[in-house]
Amino acid sequence: MISKHLLQSLARLGVAYEENVSLKSLSTFRIGGEAALALYPDSAEELAESVRLLRQDGLRFEVIGNGSNLLFCDGLFEGALILTQKMNTCRAEGNTLIADAGVSLATLAGTAAQAALTGLEFARGIPGTVGGALVMNAGAYGGAMADVTVKSLALNVETGEISELTDHGYGYRKSVYLSNGSLICLGGAFALSEGDKAKIMETMRCFAAQRKEKQPLEVPSAGSYFKRPEGHFAGKLIEDCGLKGYTVGGAQISRKHAGFIINIGNATASDVLRLEELARGEVYRRFGVTLEREVRFIG
Ligand SMILES: Cc1cc2nc3c(=O)[nH]c(=O)nc-3n(C[C@H](O)[C@H](O)[C@H](O)COP(=O)(O)OP(=O)(O)OC[C@H]3O[C@@H](n4cnc5c(N)ncnc54)[C@H](O)[C@@H]3O)c2cc1C
Question: Any idea where the domains of the chain sit in the sequence?
C-alpha cells in the first residue's frame, strides 16, 4: 500500500508520478504485472529528494532507464520504480559529452556524430539510457562505456550525498554501480576524440545493418539474455544444444539469434525463467559451461 502521506509529499515536491502502472509498458520485453508506483523526476535534486521520501516511508524502490535489460515479475511490484527518462539534457563541451542519466544512447551517440566526435559509434544501436549503460558497462562491436567514461555523478541512497565518481570498477558487464548497490547514477561525462563526421555516420550505419541482420529486433526482448561465458558465445552454445525456436508459453529462444529470449505473445516472467533454466541446464549438461543471466530481474 502506498501511503497518502507519501503521495502528498511527492505532489508538494512537484514530482510526476503514477499509481498501478503496467510493467509491460516499462520494459522492451513487454512482460510483467504492475508496479504500485512509478515516479518521473526531472532533475537530480528531484530524484534525490524522492529517494529520501521513499526511504522515510520504508518503501522499496528501483531505478530504471529504458527497461531494455530487465525482466519484471508477473505479479505486483509492491514498491516504486523511479524512471530517469525526464532527466534528459545532453551537451558537448569541447571533446567531452555531458549527459543526464535518462538520455538515450541513441541521442548521446547522435550528438557525438553531429559534433564530429568519435568513440561512441558502438553505442548508437544499444536501446538503453546513459544511466543503464554506465551501470551495465554496455558495449558492442569492440567498444564499451568503460572506454569513454571520464566521470559520473552518483547519489548514495544511504547518505543522500551526491558525488563524482572517477573509478567505476568496470569489467565485462560490471561496474561499481552493480557491485555497490547503494548508488544511483545521475549522469556522466564522456571523453571523445575529433573525427570525421561522414566516417562516424558510416560506421554507425554499418553497425545498425549488422544488428538488423543478426538480431531479432522486430520482436520484444531484453537483448542478449545471458552474459558471454569466457571463451564461448552463449548463443552458439544454446544453438548447439538444438534449442533454437524452443518455446515455453509465450517465450521462445530466438531462431535468428539463440542468445536472445523473445516474447512471441503474452509471455510471462515464469515462461522466461523456465526457458532460462532449460537452456542453462542443457548447456551445462552438454558443454560443462555455466550460463549467467545478464538481464536484471526485478520482482
Ligand atoms: C534489442 C536489444 C539489443 C541490445 N544490445 C545490447 C548491446 O549490444 N550491448 C549491451 O551491452 N546491451 C545491449 N542490450 C541491453 C541493454 O540495452 C543495455 O544493458 C542497456 O545499457 C540498458 O540500459 P537501460 O537504460 O535500458 O537500463 P534498464 O534496463 O532500465 O536497467 C538495467 C539495470 O540498470 C539499473 N539502472 C538503470 N538506470 C540506472 C540509474 N540511473 N542508476 C542506477 N541504476 C540504474 C536498473 O535498476 C537495472 O538493474 C540490448 C537490449 C535490447 C533489447
Answer: 4-83, 90-200, 216-298
